[in-house]
Amino acid sequence: MATAKRVEIVILCFALACCYVNAGPRVRPIAGPDIYKGQNVAKDSLVPGEKIVNVMNFGAKPDGEFDCTQAFMDAWRATCKSPGQNRLLIPQGRFLVSSMFFAGPCMSPKPITIQVVGTVLATTDISEYENGEWLMFEDIAGLKLIGGGTFDGQGQDSWSQTEDCEKSGSTCIRNPSSLYFNKVTNGVIQNIKSVNSKGFHVFVTNCANMRLRRIGITAPDTSPNTDGIHISHSINVKLSKCNIRTGDDCVSMIQGVNNVTINKVNCGPGHGISIGSLGKYQNELEVRGVRVLNCTFSGTDNGIRIKTWPDKYPGAASDITFSDITMQNVKRPIIIDQEYQCTPANCQKKPSLVKVSNVAFANVRGTTISPIAVDLRCMVGNNEKRKKKSVKVIAGKKDEEEGFKGKGKGRKNASRGIRQRPWGKWTSEIKVSVSGSASSTPPRKPPSASAVTRLNSTFPLLRQPRNAASTLMLISSLTK
């Protein structure tokens, strides 16, 4: 197993802008006040006159074998169509349910609560999921999904079918998402667990004022396309105190995301927290106002990542902040990839049309198992026309160049710890410290002034040394 090297990346006001092109349309905000603003949403209690609708009163059986789909649908209709305060209860037990809709609009002026105490099991026949979702919550104004229960997607068979289909080159059916929220406003998803989803665990789209708290997500690291929480076309989403272990992105965000905060999320195994891919389709809405803070990545393939397609369509991602991030044995901690899925065999060698701007990293630290701590591939033109000059590296004698693949000038002598192409400009100062400690526990204090090298440069490329016990890097200017 590769030895983990400590990489302390203390990046102060690390701002970047790539691809100065048409940014495309702005996010269309979803109207409506945030009814939970200033409230303690963690607290749940019965209110006077609240009606409890138990699925077992509609024929559901908690044996894990009886098909409870119709019973769940009937119980939901009774809950949604009643004008009073209502609570749908899924009690202790194991309830087998196929694809179904929790559809609104509902008659109650108050948020509807779905309290899940037991375990809801998905049926395993993939042909029953033609709509692409297992449980869809749609067109609901005010929803609480709580209770400490579990949604088990029983996705093992579908994963193997997906892998076999992809190997055959056939057109494959998308595996269903477990919990799909569409056109939900003022939603609280809290204290639930999702295990072994066939596809994405939680899918949030066309939603506003959503809070996702204390969600536990678990699937094997080999499970394909099992994103933990996926967000698109949504505004004012707060994700906090979640533990996500899965086979794909822990959190993924694509077009139309506006004002999203991700706080205190533990990710790993998985593919990290990603924005994108962007620029694949025409008329994509921009991503704007994303804050990722106080998150920990453990043993993930990626840490924090922005990815856009080259030579596709215009788009934009702006006002993005990553702060107080801890990496523990992460393969690729920081990535901005504007050559997504671009290989020497299929790359058109044309720049991405997605503008990435106002991206800030602050207090990102930890360990990586690869020689590349930061990988920046920002398309501001044909990088073959760009040059570097005046690069000085002070490293151990056994230091090796490794892990920087692809064509383009200015790579052979790229400095250790960060790689980037083509050359662009930083707008402010960066501090980087690299040491050879194998400890997986990040330091609690920033490195001292004597332990860091100030890099006042334009797009510095720092690589992590493999064998040097202590390395300082000094990069002067990199220009066109």
Keywords:
signal, polygalacturonase activity, 42% strand, Pectate Lyase C-like, disordered C terminus, Pectin_lyase_fold/virulence, 480 residues
3D architecture notes:
By secondary structure, the chain is mainly beta. It has two domains: 1-22 and 256-480, no CATH class; 28-34 and 47-245, Pectate Lyase C-like. Helices cover 5% and strands 42% of the residues. The protein has helices at 69-80, 156-168, and strands at residues 5-10, 14-18, 51-54, 63-67, 86-90, 94-97, 100-103, 112-116, 119-122, 133-146, 150-152, 177-190, 193-195, 202-205, 208-213, 216-218, 229-232, 235-240, 243-245, 251-253, 258-263, 266-267, 273-278, 287-293, 296-298, 302-308, 315-330, 332-337, 354-368, 372-377, 391-394, 417-421, 430-435, 453-455, 470-475. The longest helix has 13 residues, at 156-168. The chain is globular. It is found in: Secreted, Cell wall. The active site is at 271. This is Pectate lyase superfamily protein domain-containing protein.
Gyration radius from CA atoms, angstroms: 24 Å
Number of strands: 35
Class derived from helix and strand content: mainly beta
As a percent range, the share of helical residues equals under 10%
How many structural domains?
A: 2
Number of helices: 2
Average pLDDT, to the nearest integer? 77
The rounded distance between the terminal residues' Cα atoms is: 39 Å
Coarse morphology:
globular
Query: Low-confidence segments, ≥5 residues, pLDDT <50?
Result: 7-27, 381-416, 421-480
Strand content: 35-45%
For the sheet with most strands, the description reads: 35 strands, mixed
